[in-house]
Write a structure and sequence with these properties.
With 357 residues, the chain is mostly helical. It has 15 helices and eight strands. Helices cover 58% and strands 7% of the residues. Helix 2 runs antiparallel to helix 5, helix 11 crosses helix 14 and helix 13 packs across helix 14. The radius of gyration is 25 Å and the shape is elongated.
């Protein structure tokens, strides 16, 4: 049975920087709770609880009431759902009428497609490992682990990568981030907790995490979520490092992760890379170019590991020496070669053509 804590107990036992996160979330919950309550009261529903009223001054109560009464019916319904999600935030499972909260030091997650970056067996840079990189015993362990993971996913299709519930959780979190310009990462983590899935091939998941990267990294640094959230961020970094991105796109990605504005990124793109991007186009690049490239890297990683038992499916580039899968992503077809593929990878071919110009 999990131990449950009241807000008073949390205030007594938490370190200050940890407690600040609770207080910000509690404040947001209480404000939304009051506005929903006053809206119901004006509609003939139950009177707002006195302990909830007592948390605000009269001017604050008046301001919150004006906001609540300005809501349309659709907004009112959305706010009720938002309150439920805030109360589900990690560490805080808060019931109605001030029910106690429950500590949640970890979130049990299904991480797709290849789990979290916690060991070095299959987490080397793309092109730096193939079947010959492993001994027979180690390769056997990798294959068993991979297919154990794939079987679990197959046996749980209702919460799979394309699950509506899962996608909605991240998409809804991303919409709230854009609408509210929230300064903390609690809502993104709440979306992760609600779906119990992190899928690095799903662009909505990547968007939700990257948009709140700075706040999530700060939470990890304060060790509020143990190792798991840090592992999620490190895994995403791995896929970003292996994604096919230009130098200017990498600069935009790092800038977004650091919380820089589009105006700042536009200036760097112009001064350093000679690109005259508009501020809106910076967002377009991030959403439509960078995030899909990271998702593609996650899918590519799965293909690489899946084919490790089959050395005939790999080919070493005669130019750069990387070990790559023999497919159209990495090599150009060539009818004259023995295996039907060019001896140089596409990256080296492109570089050679550029040098000839």
């Amino acid at each position: 049975v999990k131990r449950r804590f009241s807000r008073k107990e949390i205030e007594e036992i938490c370190p200050k920087n940890f407690l600040d996160e609770f207080r910000k979330l509690w404040r947001e919950i209480d404000e939304l709770d009051y506005m929903i309550g006053i809206r119901r009261e004006r509609g003939g529903g139950p009177v707002v609880r006195d302990p909830l009223r007592a948390k605000f001054g009269q001017e604050e109560l008046d301001a919150l009431e004006r906001k609540a009464l300005d809501w349309s019916d659709a907004q009112f319904n959305r706010k009720k759902h938002e309150l439920v999600e805030l109360r589900r935030a990690p560490f805080l499972v808060n019931g109605n009428n001030g029910a106690p909260i429950e500590a949640r030091p970890t979130i049990e997650l299904d991480v797709r497609p290849m789990g979290l970056k916690r060991h070095e067996k299959w987490w080397r840079n793309f092109g730096e490992f193939g079947p010959a990189s492993f001994g027979e015993k180690e390769l056997d362990e990798i294959v068993k682990e991979f297919w154990r993971k794939r079987k679990w996913v197959k046996d749980h299709p209702t919460i799979g990568a394309n699950s509506d519930e899962c996608a909605d959780a991240y998409a809804d979190g991303a919409k709230r981030v854009r609408r509210n310009n929230s300064s903390d990462g609690a809502k993104t983590i709440a979306a992760i907790a609600r779906s119990n899935i992190v899928d690095f091939t799903d662009e909505s998941h990547l968007y939700g995490i990257l948009k709140k990267w700075k706040e999530l990294a700060a939470i990890v640094e304060r060790e509020q979520f143990g190792e798991q959230m840090g592992d999620i961020l490190r895994t995403l970094e791995y896929y970003a490092d292996n994604a096919e991105l230009t130098d200017v796109y990498r600069m935009i990605l790092k800038g977004k992760m650091a919380g820089k504005s589009n105006a700042e990124l536009r200036e760097v793109a112009h001064e350093t890379y000679g690109k005259n991007y508009g501020e809106n186009y910076i967002s377009t690049i991030f959403t439509n170019k960078i995030i899909p490239a990271i998702a593609a890297a996650a899918r590519k990683h799965m293909d690489i590991v899946e084919n490790l038992p089959f050395s005939e499916n790999y080919k070493k580039c005669t130019c750069c020496g990387r070990i790559l899968l023999k497919n159209s992503d990495n090599f150009t077809k060539c009818a004259r070669s023995n295996d039907g593929w060019q001896t140089r990878c596409k990256t080296c071919e492109h570089a050679a053509r550029a040098n000839r110009k």
